[in-house]
């Protein structure tokens, strides 16, 4: 009896142990299996969504959370996540994507031809998700106030109308393209031009709106990799307001190819808005120079800037600000482009000829818009560039970029790698040799701003200095005593060493290797001769916005200097 009880006790304990093992395995394996199944379903769903996006005529983008209360345009249900079209503004849930493709047309970049030429087009209404604080074009009351899919918006003129106010006549009424009609390229214009090119006709002057007096079509060129990574968002916002054919992503298409659109538009009327840093602007201006070489000079556009880079000195000089972080609505940016005045910008050829090698090496040639420098600021740019090449993901913020510059500037204050520069170089301005004081750096300026917002040629502004412009064919040449001196000038505690102004600058590096830069593109250079001569002019747009106190004082000082000069004459 006792043996039987002991055996049953042993077997029950074994069963209990196996039961514990089983449930332990279940508790471990089941979550893993559920996680794997969910991961598989998620990846399968993403593949299906990408396939729909690829085949669709809409420019769909997926988001995990909409920035405002949104409703699916198909099922009218409230949605937190889903897809939205960057061109027409449709918002749909994930499950309604296919239906949305079948039910709703996107913005047409070119109108389908049905017989004769078109001179107008009706409104293209989309129901629901109207912009906040928009008003009905009929009753002038606020739209989109009800917590449901309601009211209509035209994807071209951006007018909104209540459900109860919309009438049959509105659905067939001619669209005026709204506030930005002078900037938009209408779909019917492109279809007419396309047909004329097939017929080998080039008399575009009679095509509407080619013949309209104030039409100034704009082309948007955005670099999505610039500075604070706002380019992707801006692309979508501009596609909503304009014809998507006017908006280009420079990470996918080169500026030279995008600018060929200018050849289909009226001569001397096109405006280009470059969204990026000074490097992106230089890239676009080089593409415009290529148009001149091809004999397309009459199609050259005027260039405005939306600063997305780190330094943005050219943008600052032309009145477009030191940096854009979304504080100004896109609509206001387009208004600024319409109101901007045309000016010229000097562009310079920088030729670097290495010494020795029996002159068999081809000289390096750069195009300069902003400045050339040798010394501590070029060393900071070189160190920054090398660091960014190693870990580009760290440099997605304008603040981080400036912090890295500050770190290398502080380091150079202690190390002084560029000391005794005056013993290593010779400087000639318009053929006349300049005696150099004890310096660590030489900077050749074409524009008013340098180093991320510093008016270097002016310094503290407490002493008279020759006038400096970006369209006078003259370069300003200054010297600095080191990184600490640069920092003092930036906070207006010191003046630069003004070496003079010239039409041609020649700099000879006699010995050793020194850091150099042209418009923020740095390199280490051995013994050479650097020659800077005038190359061409670029047509730019100047935004005369509100002046800061520093800019206002600078203008008044320059006016005072001009008056003194006139009196002396």
From TrEMBL:
Residues 557-569 have a biased composition (Basic and acidic residues). Its main location: cytoplasm. Residues 57-106, 122-175 form the Phorbol-ester/DAG-type domain. It comes from the Eukaryota. The keyword Coiled coil does not apply. It is found in: Cytoplasm; Membrane. Pfam families: DAGK_acc, DAGK_cat. It is an enzyme of class 2 (transferase). Residues 213-354 form the DAGKc domain. It catalyses: 1,2-di-(9Z-octadecenoyl)-sn-glycerol + ATP = 1,2-di-(9Z-octadecenoyl)-sn-glycero-3-phosphate + ADP + H(+); a 1,2-diacyl-sn-glycerol + ATP = a 1,2-diacyl-sn-glycero-3-phosphate + ADP + H(+); 1-eicosanoyl-2-(5Z,8Z,11Z,14Z)-eicosatetraenoyl-sn-glycerol + ATP = 1-eicosanoyl-2-(5Z,8Z,11Z,14Z)-eicosatetraenoyl-sn-glycero-3-phosphate + ADP + H(+); 1,2-di-(9Z,12Z-octadecadienoyl)-sn-glycerol + ATP = 1,2-di-(9Z,12Z-octadecadienoyl)-sn-glycero-3-phosphate + ADP + H(+). Keywords: ATP-binding, Cytoplasm, Kinase, Lipid metabolism, Membrane, Metal-binding, Nucleotide-binding, Repeat, Transferase, Transmembrane, Transmembrane helix, Zinc, Zinc-finger. SUPFAM superfamilies: Cysteine-rich domain (SSF57889), NAD kinase/diacylglycerol kinase-like (SSF111331). This is Diacylglycerol kinase. It comes from Ciconia maguari. The lineage of its organism: Eukaryota, Metazoa, Chordata, Craniata, Vertebrata. The gene is Dgke.
């Amino acid at each position: 009896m006792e043996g039987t009880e002991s055996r049953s006790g042993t077997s029950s304990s074994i069963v209990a142990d196996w039961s514990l093992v089983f449930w332990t395995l279940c508790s471990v394996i089941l979550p893993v299996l559920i996680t794997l199944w969910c991961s598989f379903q998620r990846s399968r769903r993403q593949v299906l969504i990408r396939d729909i996006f690829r085949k669709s005529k809409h420019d769909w983008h997926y988001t995990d959370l909409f920035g405002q209360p949104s409703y699916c345009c198909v099922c009218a249900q409230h949605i937190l996540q889903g897809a939205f079209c960057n061109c027409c503004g449709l918002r749909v849930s994930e499950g309604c994507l296919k239906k949305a493709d079948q039910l709703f047309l996107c913005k047409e970049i070119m109108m389908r031809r049905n017989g004769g030429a078109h001179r107008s087009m009706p409104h293209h209404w989309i129901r629901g998700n109207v912009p906040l604080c928009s008003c009905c074009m009929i009753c002038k009351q606020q739209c989109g106030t009800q917590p449901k899919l309601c009211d209509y918006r035209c994807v071209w003129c951006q007018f909104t109308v209540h459900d109860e106010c919309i009438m049959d006549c509105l659905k067939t009424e001619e669209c005026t393209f709204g506030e930005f009609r002078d900037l938009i390229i209408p779909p019917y214009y492109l279809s007419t031009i396309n047909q004329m090119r097939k017929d080998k006709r080039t008399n575009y002057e009679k095509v509407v709106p080619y013949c309209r007096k104030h039409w100034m079509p704009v082309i948007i060129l955005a670099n999505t990799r610039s500075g604070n990574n706002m380019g992707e968002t801006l692309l979508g916002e501009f596609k909503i307001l304009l014809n998507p054919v006017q908006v280009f992503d420079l990470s996918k298409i080169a500026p030279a190819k995008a600018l060929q659109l200018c050849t289909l538009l009226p001569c001397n009327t096109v405006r280009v808005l470059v969204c990026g840093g000074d490097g992106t602007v230089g890239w676009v201006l080089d593409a415009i120079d290529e148009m001149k070489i091809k004999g397309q000079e009459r199609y050259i556009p005027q260039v405005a800037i939306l600063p997305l880079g780190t330094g943005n000195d050219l943008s600052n000089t032309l009145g477009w600000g030191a940096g854009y972080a979304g504080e100004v609505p896109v609509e206001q940016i387009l208004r600024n482009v319409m109101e901007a005045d045309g000016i010229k910008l000097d562009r310079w050829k920088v030729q670097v000829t290495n010494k020795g090698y029996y002159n068999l090496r081809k000289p390096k040639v750069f195009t300069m818009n902003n400045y050339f420098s040798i010394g501590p600021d070029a060393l900071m740019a070189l160190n920054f560039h090398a660091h960014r090449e190693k870990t580009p993901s760290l440099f997605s913020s304008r603040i981080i970029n400036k912090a890295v510059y500050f770190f290398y500037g502080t380091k150079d204050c202690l190390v002084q790698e560029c000391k005794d520069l005056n013993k290593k170089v010779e400087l000639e301005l318009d053929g006349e040799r300049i005696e150099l004081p004890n310096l660590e750096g030489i900077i050749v300026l074409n524009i008013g701003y340098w180093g991320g917002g510093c008016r270097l040629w002016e310094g503290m502004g407490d002493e008279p200095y020759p006038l400096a412009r970006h369209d006078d064919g003259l370069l300003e040449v200054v010297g600095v005593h080191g990184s600490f001196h640069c920092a003092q000038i930036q906070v207006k505690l010191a003046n630069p060493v003004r070496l003079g102004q010239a039409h041609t600058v020649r700099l000879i590096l006699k010995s050793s290797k020194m850091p150099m830069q042209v418009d923020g593109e740095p390199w280490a250079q051995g013994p050479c001769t650097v020659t800077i001569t005038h190359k061409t002019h670029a047509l730019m747009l100047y935004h005369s916005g509100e002046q800061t106190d520093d800019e206002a004082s600078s203008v008044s000082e320059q006016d005072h200097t001009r008056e003194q000069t006139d009196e002396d004459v």
